[in-house]
Design brief:
Length: about 400
Amino acid sequence: MKKHYNLLMIGGGPAGAIAARTAAKAGLSACIVEKRPAIGAPVRCAEGIGMESLAEFVKPDPCFISAEMQRAALVAPDGTTMILDSQSSGGKVGYVLDRKVFDRELVWQAAEAGSDVAVKTRASAPIIKDGKVRGATLEFCGTKTDVTADVVIAADGVESKFSKWCGIDTTVPLREIMSSAQYIVTDIDIDPHCTVFCLGNEVAPQGYLWVFPKGDRTANVGIGISGLKSGTGHRAKDYLDRYMASKFPNGKTIEWIVGGVSVCRPLACTVGDGLIIAGDAARVVDPLTGGGIYNAMYTGDLAAKVAIDAIEKGDTSKNALMPYDMQWRQSKMGKTIERNYHIKEYMINLTDAKMNAIIQTASSINLKEFSTLQLVKELIKRDPKLIFELAILKDLIT
Ligand SMILES: Cc1cc2nc3c(=O)[nH]c(=O)nc-3n(C[C@H](O)[C@H](O)[C@H](O)COP(=O)(O)OP(=O)(O)OC[C@H]3O[C@@H](n4cnc5c(N)ncnc54)[C@H](O)[C@@H]3O)c2cc1C
């Protein structure tokens, strides 16, 4: 490891890896530091991603794709099921990744482009001089080393502390932290090309339960519920176990992981002097779906591009890095996050009866396009009263 880098990435997830790859490809010195001993593990993710979203950053490769999806099923509390199939999306739905391999592939690509990588290395404090972030103190097996950088990219995920240490408010309200539990379950009867989402206050209060196939008889089965709804006897794992007992009583669990996803709005500002915050650390997860792999790659890439430009111009102040914050907010990703935040806020207050009614209506709709926006538009056509309930979305969907 060098004493100084142009870009120092805190975190070896998709955001940090793509940022490092972009920087190294542009000929800048870059280093990823990852506190875990292995990139990609443990996997706290349902591992789903849209085909086009993936292809924007990585060439799809069977080595990190567990299964290709052709359909999605949305299951209402009363069991009514709405199927969205590949015909309604022009043949493109998505993949269930093998994130252990995928995350390694991204870091490998960054390393191949010239980035350094340090695993089992924790950033334990920022180096701040004259109010500007200038690097980080790194801890490896009890030894502390100061490494300076022109720009630090905080890509340290949902549990991010780095930006907080730099004085940025990263607090997520408890009600907007989804408490999650997930199993990899094998020897179960599933449709191997269909992702299943189950809704309902008895099934997954203010969240959803998913079954994402990872092969013919194996799936990532998990749940996210609002942190406010979690308590003794009704934690995410309790709901998941009830579902498992009723649907897959003979399934064999080969992996069990708990975690959290933020479904709040993004941070009010995602840059500081010498600092850019990317991925989950910036709270850019889709608040409706909990999906954040694409958003992490998108913001990681943009963070590196803006940092490269700022370094070339010799100015890495907050003002010079501000185009990052502005560009992602104005992007399709930024607008989707804002819209889906409102849809999520609407959804979490729905009674089971209302959810049943919506899914019953939706299941009779023949969608021309596979998207949340298209679905909401069609729902409003059938039930114009919804426009008032979703008033804040009016400008976006009319
Ligand atoms: C249960 C669950 C299900 C999900 N399902 C999906 C899904 O199906 N599809 C989807 O798109 N998204 C999903 N997500 C979200 C997705 O996993 C994240 O959005 C994505 O991993 C974000 O990437 P990232 O690089 O920002 O952060 P991460 O992947 O979390 O990477 C951050 C890395 O930083 C490291 N780190 C933290 N602190 C330090 C430090 N001080 N020093 C060094 N390293 C540090 C961490 O160890 C970690 O490896 C899910 C999340 C959860 C929890």
